[in-house]
Amino acid sequence: MTAAPAQPERDGLLRRLAGDSGYLLSGFPLAVVGFVIIVTGLSAGVGLLVVVVGLPVLALTVLVARLLADIERLRIPAILRRPRTRPTYRTSQAGEGIWNRITTPLAQTQGWLDVAHALLLFPIAVFTFCVAVTWWAAAIGGTFTVAWDWSIPRGPDNQSLAQLIGLGDSAFARIAFQTAIGLVCLVTLPAVMRLCALAQAGFSRLLLTGVAEMRETITVLTDQKAAAVSAEAVALRKLERDMHDGPQQRLVRLAMDLGRAQQQLDSDPEALRGTLAEAVDQTRETLDELRALSRGIAPPVLADRGLPSALAALAGRCTVPVELVVDADLGQPHGRLDAAVENTAYFTVSEALTNVAKHSGATNCWVTVANGPGRLAVQIVDDGSGGAHVAKGHGLSGLADRVTSTGGALTVVSPAGGPTEIKVELPC
User: Are 48 and 56 in contact (CB under 8 A)?
Assistant: First the structure.
């Protein structure tokens, strides 16, 4: 039973070896062509600057470097196992003059990084190509020495490697030594090809996509920061509104009841009893509303017993029947997630169930929470009338900001007539 995965693993190793070798062998002619074109273009462009013709030549050279860079960007994802990233190049706008159109490629940092890549890749590609060809030749030729050794003429001017290192001139020693070298190269061939391919592809990624990825990261972090600020502002406004409409009004009523009771203390003891009873009721209702608000801020059950118990309490309070499925490990001490992730997952389900109860007209709801490798997936589905979306001014917009602030993603599919499906993925 344990030997079953051997064939897929071997096939995967062979595919990777073929991919790495193909990348290195095909990269050499591309690097030669790119180096020759870019060197020629730069030389001609710089030399012709004195007669202005050099600017178009330099611009054309940068555009050719961009084309070569795009070809390399198509090749490196298979080696690095990363999605392809292409920088956004600024293009000329309609109505711009001819010189503006010519100088636009020359004014972009990434264009000159593409040029630098074409120049600097050449020596790297030459080295990795030589290593790849040498290792393949040694692996194949050395392993099968016994098949071709007889065809090599022998003489004092044609000594074998075995003779040069003092192993003697016998055919057995010669073939055994060369076969051993071939087997070593054959065994290490996948690792050597992988190392060379990673080095060359990593260099290409650094110059061709590094700036774009850094800018994308900065943009994502900026969006997360803005979403966090927006979510906090929305939460504070909601808390302020809930406090004003609920406990604050009841506390005002309680103060008025206590003032009336003070006046009735001597004049109307019978009425005093009724006033105090109303004050007690107001106090209890105020406490209930404060407890409800505290659950919305930081539910104690979430901190004490974990996400499954907290979500079970939410499902139990919902007026629409909820079928809840949560990974049991999330409630165990070893399976607890980061507090920010648990809070976001809890409030996602809380907000979604509130919308289901108030607006969807649904008769059933299904909530699934699954903990995968590095991601927590939350799915809420109801059979209501649909029409939910995350536009500003709607209930889900604040939820979208909260999810984005943690680096997660929220997707809402809610066609008219239903059903509604909300998916949230949170990094953990």
Answer: no
Higher confidence at residue 427 or residue 177? Answer: 427
Q: What is the pLDDT of residue 2?
A: 41
168 with 162: CB under 8 angstroms? yes
The runs of H, that is alpha helices, within 81-209 are 98-103, 109-143, 145-148, 161-164, 171-208
Report in angstroms the alpha-carbon separations of 397 from 365, 400, 415: 21, 5, 17
Q: How far is CA 318 from CA 121, 242, 354, in A?
A: 62, 19, 8
Rounded CA-CA distance 31/132 in Å is 15
Distances (CA, A) of 265 to 32, 253, 279, 281, 282: 102, 18, 14, 19, 19
d(CA 270, CA 286): 25
3-state secondary structure of 124: helix
Residue 358 burial class via C-beta count within 10 angstroms: exposed 0-12, middle 13-18, buried 19 and up: exposed
Does residue 200 contact residue 124 with C-beta atoms inside 8 Å?
A: yes
> Which of 425, 410, 311 lies closest to 370, judged by CA?
425
Reported confidence tier of residue 331, pLDDT bands at 50, 70, 90: low
Beta strands 409-413 and 375-382 are unpaired
**3: pLDDT strictly greater than 50:** no
**Token digits of residue 288:** 């209930």
What is the model's pLDDT at position 47? 83
- Using DSSP's 3-state secondary structure scheme, residue 86 falls into coil
Whether the pLDDT of residue 341 is over 70: the answer is yes
Question: What is the C-alpha separation between 286 and 271, in angstroms, rounded?
Answer: 23
Helix 54-80 with 6-47: angle, nearest 10 deg: 170
What pLDDT digit, counting tens, does each position of 77-95 carry?
889 888 887 877 777 766 6
For range 226-243, the mean pLDDT: 60
Average pLDDT over residues 14-32: 91
Compute the residue count for the chain: 428
Q: Which residue has the tokens 């061939």?
A: 189
- The backbone torsions φ and ψ at residue 228, rounded to the nearest 5 degrees and listed phi first, read -65, -45
Q: What is the pTM of this model?
A: 0.54
The tokens of 228 are what? 């966090």
